[in-house]
Design brief:
This protein is α/β, with parallel strands linked by helices. It has helices spanning 25-37, 67-89, 98-104, 197-200, 202-217, 228-239, and strands at 8-14, 41-47, 59-62, 94-97, 107-109, 115-117, 124-141, 144-158, 166-170, 180-181, 183-185, 188-191. The protein contains 6 helices and 12 strands. The radius of gyration is 17 Å and the shape is globular. The structure holds glutamine.
């Protein structure tokens, strides 16, 4: 296919400056590369505080950050919250990791007792616990094993409006108590899994891509991609000590 004839998929990287730790940027790279392999051009918009949110994106990705990063973006995120909720209602796929996962929920209460408000798109509540939950994590869902790395003080509890993204096999996940990891509503996935998540778990990337492309173009043809290296990385990560 000639480059200019390829359909374009518009990906937004939310708060790339302040919310982007433990390789979360790799999620954007993976989506970009896999879209290319599937025959799509990618328009990548980096959104930072004060920017205007593009009106009609196809996929939105956001990462984790320090409590301070969360406080820095709070006002801006609350301002664009209604637009994000509207896009989620329209079925736009989104992937939010750790700090932004928490802030797509109702609130994050820090260890010092400060409340960082979220946009409430996900029916979840998070409060910091006494120690951080750190280490390699293995989870499982309908796509298979989903592996990653977690590092968070927040304990997240899910309400009735969401379902877990995965079940914890090894590690802490949402709160270390109920074996749930992450939360899903419509096409929005929130997860604690850094690592980054998508390079080692291409099935999750493909699910986001397939839903975005089907929504935009009315269908999505399967493409054979050699994922042996990704599968090996996933197996090695799953065996690493916690
Ligand atoms: N500050 C949040 C917490 O510790 C988010 C951390 C992160 O994004 N890695 O729970």
């Amino acid at each position: 296919m000639i480059g200019s004839e390829r359909p374009t998929v518009h990906v937004i990287h939310l708060y790339a400056h302040d919310m982007n730790v433990y390789g979360d940027w790799g999620n954007v790279l993976t989506l970009t590369r896999r879209l290319d392999w599937r025959g799509y051009d990618v328009r990548l918009t980096r959104y930072d505080t004060g920017d205007s949110l593009p009106r009609d994106p196809d996929i939105i990705v956001g990462g984790g950050g320090q409590d301070s990063g969360q406080e820095k973006i709070q006002t801006d995120l609350l301002a664009i919250g209604p637009q994000l909720v509207d896009l989620a209602e329209q079925g736009v796929p989104m992937l939010m990791i750790c700090g932004l996962y928490q802030m797509f929920g109702k609130f994050f209460r820090t260890a010092e007792g400060r409340t960082i408000r979220g946009i409430g798109m996900l029916d979840i509540e998070t409060s910091a616990g006494p120690e951080r939950l750190i280490g390699n994590i293995v989870t499982h869902n309908a796509l298979g094993d989903v592996v990653g790395y977690e590092n968070h003080s927040g304990r997240t509890f899910l309400g009735d409006g969401v379902r877990p993204f995965a079940t914890v096999v090894r590690g802490a996940g949402n709160n270390g108590l109920d074996a749930t990891e992450g939360a899903v509503r419509k096409e929005v996935i929130g997860s604690y899994l850094h690592g980054p998540l998508l390079p080692k778990n291409p099935a999750v990337a493909d699910q986001l891509i397939e839903r975005a492309v089907t929504r935009r173009f009315g269908g999505c043809s399967p493409v054979a991609i050699d994922d042996r290296l990704a599968a090996l990385a996933s197996r090695v990560a799953a065996r690493r000590p916690r």
